[in-house]
Amino acid sequence: MAALAGSYSMPLIGVSIFIAALTYTTYKLLSSYVHKWFQMKPIPGLEGTYPFIGNALQFETNAGDFFKQIVGYTTEYSNAPLLKFWLGTLPFLVLFHAETVEHWAKVASAEKDADSHLPLLHPDGLLGGDERAERDPGGEAKQDGREGMSDIISRRQRTPWFWFGFVYNYFGEGREHDKILKILHSFTYNGTKKRRAFLDMLLKATYEDGNKMTHQDIQEEVDTFMFEGHDTTAAAMNWVLHLLGSHPEAQSKVQQELQEVFGTSDRPVNTEDLKKLRYLDCVIKEALRLFPSVPFFGRNLGEDCHINGFKVPKGANAVVVTYALHRDPRYFPDPEEFRPERFLPENSTGRPPYAYVPFSAGLRNCIGQRFAMMEEKVVLSTILRNFNVEACQTREELRPLGELILRPEKGIWIKLEKRLHKD
Q1: Binding site residues for heme, as ranges?
Q2: Helix or strand holding residue 390 (H, E)
Q3: End-to-end CA distance of the chain
Q4: Which of 150, 229, 324, 408 is the most exposed place for a label (fewest CB within 10 A)?
Q5: Domain coordinates of the chain in residue numbers?
Q6: pLDDT, tens digit, for every residue of 200-230?
Q7: Quick check: pTM over 0.70?
């Protein structure tokens, strides 16, 4: 009889421990949520915020409609010092004024990427890579995979009930996510084998504590390099070509500058040439102002802080909407107009540094921004030395999608005409 009682006691103890742990975890999550709710109550926010759901039901599911909605909120609340909304139990601050972005940048050293807080924004989700159609039999599948992953991640970001892995796997697009992930990881894995020097460097790298990078760490670094090195710059150059094709006068100025630097020579571009292409530099910067490659970026606040007079608790997420920030009429009059001259030195005097942040801001800004600008100058100068560009769409027809990268819904169509005379 005693043995029988003992056989029942062990499962009961296990169940009791599980219930106790679940109760404690739930209590900690609820207390943290309630604490943030009341602490952030003074901050202006969207109407129709419900407990535990937040504003999730208000957001559009279509990527284009969602992006238009967020931009609309920044216009509606343009006079508010801050804007707050809730996705599930997570609070988000929307920053789109130079002053608030500067306040945020001052505490950037204590922050971590928002993707470390949300599993759906993990580097495995971003994947990097412009796994764009390479010149190999599987290239088209890789491009479809990259675009499909971008869509999946964007949808999951807007539906907090799918942030839980088991719910997403059984009721959402978890299986499709994993399928595409394998395609993209195989591409970056094969890429590292072809570039042994880069892989060898990562294999030898160690952290501050002396530990070496794990296989997953290396995979994430390769993914990040692929993503930042291709997709963002490719998107930026597409927007530049569309804008120049829509503004023949600006295109003529660029080609005149190219004529002054290269003459009738067909020699390749060198670093000295890049320094002389000042107007092209202004064109790229203006294109990044109107259509920043990354339309918004987020950080998870690592400590309590004050932003523009409001106390913001640790664990809140700050989202800088660069697309709206770059349209502040105080610093960019007629913000929807394409005017490369805005970035000439004499016209940039007095402009706050945080009014224009296409490569993020603070200590975690893009380490490859100088290389990106050089890469874009090389490619664009080569195209414009040989072709005239004509846009086949109006800006209104493009309908930007604010996903991981800012892209037009149906792509950009241009007409290239061979330049017979470069004089």
Answers
A1: 366
A2: strand 387-391
A3: 104
A4: 229
A5: 47-418
A6: 666 666 666 777 777 777 766 666 666 666 7
A7: yes
